[in-house]
Amino acid sequence: MAAELLGKSRQDLREYCQALGQPPYRGAQIYRSLYAGRRFGFAEMTDLPVKLRERLAREASISLPQVVRRHASADGCVRYLLALAAENGAPASVEAVFMPSEGRQTICVSTQAGCAVDCRFCLTARLGLLRNLSPGEILAQVLLPLEEHKDRLAGQTNVVLMGQGEPFLNYDAVLEAVRIMLDGEALGFSPKHVTLSTSGILPGIERLAAEPVRPKLAISLNASTDEQRDAIMPINRKYPLNALLEACRRYPLRPWERLTFEYVLLGGVNDAPEDARRVVRLLSLLRAKVNLIPWNPADLPFREPAPERVEEFRRILWEKGIPVFVRLSRGRDVMAACGQLASL
Ligand code: SAH
Ligand code: SF4
């Protein structure tokens, strides 16, 4: 079977070339061609000797996943349903969302097929965990939409690891992929433009804190008391608010950085002015910003918050000096918005 090169690190590719009896620097050349040059065919890697290109074409492959379905939203977003190679006989699929806007494009990628965390308001939870994605499968979700839109790309690409899955429950593969995204000799994205979102897996936050290369971190807060959070995010029983916020306070922010807290507003559940005031207290010792996400309808027993509640919530945080933004999710008409990804 051909060796899959997509997802391999510079070191992996050096070792791969060595095993072929080639000098290791050939591996570094493939690394740059593949990720910086975005060349997905060996014939295009013109800095390699012809003989090696021919051998690679026989013995290795670079495969972008097959697009099972493409849903184009009226607002310009595209939701991709991508086929993954079968593992243990079970084929899986996963979703990525491409969102163009003025001066940039944002790509939302999945880190697992399905998710085991079981947040009550999220459609992905219904799938359960199907499987972890490999570094190559995570990178492919960025490369494929960039390739498809290459004639009309804006200058800046943002990546958000906010699709299906909990990134910290697939830590090693996610960090491998992120390192390739952030490496100047590979995809070369700025760490300011890559954001990983977690439901609050404490050991993951602590591990990320010690990484020399890391993306921005977002935490799905979603509630203002433990009681409320227990009810909508069962993971809170394992990592309750106090411990979570303590880990956030220890997290080593870079000078330009703030921690992002996401707060899904669920009508009548967590959207009261008292909730907003408690959120202000919870975040009081942190350099934080808050993204309020009005709940996106899915076939689940919640309702959207009233617009006045959203505005009131925003105002309370703003008046206490917390940078706060209301994120109106895009792609709702094609079920591409936060919490709506369920491989349909
Ligand atoms: N699993 C990670 C990242 C993916 S979810 C996490 O939970 O952080 C990305 C964001 O969408 C999270 O903040 C989550 O709370 C939010 N979300 C989930 N379902 C939603 C829905 N139906 N409407 C709005 N936001 C939702
Ligand atoms: Fe998983 Fe995030 Fe959905 Fe929770 S909100 S079930 S962690 S994908």
Report on the structure:
- The protein has 10 helices and 14 strands.
- The mean pLDDT is 94.
- With 344 residues, the protein is an alpha/beta fold.
- The chain has a 10-stranded mixed beta sheet, covered by helices on one side. A two-stranded parallel ribbon has the order 1-2. The protein has a two-stranded antiparallel ribbon with strand order 7-8.
- The structure holds S-adenosyl-L-homocysteine and iron/sulfur cluster.
- Iron/sulfur cluster binds next to loops.
Summing up helix and strand content along with how strands pair, one would put the structural category as: alpha/beta
Helix-strand pattern = EHHHEEEEEEEHEHEHEHHEHEHE
Mean pLDDT: 94
Low-confidence stretches: none
Question: Short summary of the structure?
Answer:
With 344 residues, the protein is α/β, with parallel strands linked by helices.
